[in-house]
Amino acid sequence: MCELDGLLPMDMSIGCILLMVATVYAVVQMSRFIFADADFTLLWATSFGKKPEAQLKGRVVWITGASSGIGEELAYQLAQIGTQLVLSARRENELERVKRECLGRSRLHEENILVLPLDLLDRKTHEAKTAAVLEHFGKIDVLINNGGRSQRSLCLETNMEVYEALMELNFLGTVSLTKQVLPHMIQKGTGTVTTVSSVAGIAGAPLLTGYSASKHALQGFFNSLRIEVADYPGITISTICPGPVQSQIVQNAFTEKLNKPLSQAGDQQHKMTTARCVRLILCGLANHVKEMWIGHQPFLLFFYVWQYTPTLAWFVTSILGKKRIQNFKAGLDADAAYFTKPKVP
């Protein structure tokens, strides 16, 4: 009996210590989450994983949508690492500008960067474009499906032609190019296909009905494809889901009519910098992260809420969505209400 009396306080002390450790751990993780700009897996890879400078140097990376925004910044950061690049978009003059800038920022030579104009809508050309890359470099190590357009319009005001264009460009164009590149990667046993989706590929958002549908389609396609190629351990299929990022995507967005430009994009300075977004992407690629959630708060919180508590997500989204529509009608950036000051890297 005395022995038991002596053990009880000791057991209680150990229990208290474990509880304190668990509490401190929970507080630390919560604090990290408040200031986080990516999911915990990606942040771990960024801090403790393999570095892009070691993993991507010398690789051949094909970037679509490389003439602006995330694609352009990807080209610059990859060039500084020493990656060999294929730059694709519709505007050849802009691709040449990006190439000159890449050469100026790196030790790459002319032959290390291939400018390859590409129209994702012209799917019959994708086989020949892929062959041109293989002829020039002999291999494709990474395909970054970044090309596409966003949307800013209400469903009831949007023509069906806009929905068709979004699916043709964002979804079918991406699938078409992937189907040309993937057999080469499987043949050589290694390769990465990564696709820029969106927070709208996981959650719904007003003003983005067609864009969100195209990104949901990409999520479903690549989640299924990842399982199909599971027998090839050297092949990585990854998706990137950014929240709002400073780029030209809003200015170039579809509106309610096919050829009608957006009248006013609003101030974009409150959004994540393109440089920070791309650095996170490269760390994810270097560590074969299958899905990357990237965004400042409250968007990062939305990812987790939509993933784990969808009923709460519907409630919150319905409230914030009304403000988003009000901003749009007032000529502001749709996401401006979620921020109080510009974001810095």
TrEMBL record:
Q: Name one Pfam family in it.
A: adh_short
Q: Which UniProt keywords apply?
A: Membrane, Oxidoreductase, Transmembrane, Transmembrane helix
UniProt-recorded Gene Ontology molecular function terms: oxidoreductase activity
The organism's superkingdom is given as Eukaryota
Q: Where are the transmembrane segments?
A: 12-28
Which PROSITE patterns does its entry note?
ADH_SHORT (PS00061)
List the InterPro entries hit by this protein, alphabetically: NAD(P)-bd_dom_sf, Sc_DH/Rdtase_CS, SDR_fam, SDR_family_member_7
Q: Which family does it belong to?
A: Belongs to the short-chain dehydrogenases/reductases (SDR) family.
Which protein is depicted?
A: Dehydrogenase/reductase SDR family member 7
| Organism in which the protein naturally occurs | Alosa alosa (allis shad)
Name the lineage: Eukaryota, Metazoa, Chordata, Craniata, Vertebrata
